[in-house]
Amino acid sequence: MAVTIGLVAAGAAAIVAGLAGVSGTAGPGVMLVLFGGGFFLLRERSVRRQLAPYLRAERGVTVTMTDSEYRAEGPDRATSRTWTTFRSVSRVGDFWVLRVSPQLAMGLPVTALDDRQTAAFVQLLREKGLYAATSS
Fold it and tell me: How far is CA 56 from the centre of its chain?
C-alpha cells in the first residue's frame, strides 16, 4: 500500500508542477499515477485469485491460533506460520487477509470466527502489531 500511495503522491506532485509550469510537462506524473494504480490492482488481483477456491464451494478448514503461530488445515493442505512471518492483517470484504509479502497473503473467512473469537483474534493482532486498517 505504501508503494501505491508513494507513486500516486509523487505523480500528483509532478502533474501539479507540470501544469504550473515549474518543471517540464505533466506526462511523467501521469505515468507515476498510472503505475501506482496498476500496482494496487495487481496486488488486489493476486489476493482475489488466492481466495477464489474458497469462494466456489463450502469447505471445512480447522484454524488454530496460538501466541506463537497460525495453523490452518483443510481438505487439500495444511499450513503453519509463526506470527513473525506476517507483515499485517486486515479485513477485506468477507475475509481476514494475513499478508506475508506484497505478493503473498493467506485468507481467513470472517464467518470462520464467532464474535468472541473475532475479538480475541483482533486483540492478538494488536498485541503483535499486525492489525491494519479495515477495507471493505
Answer: 21
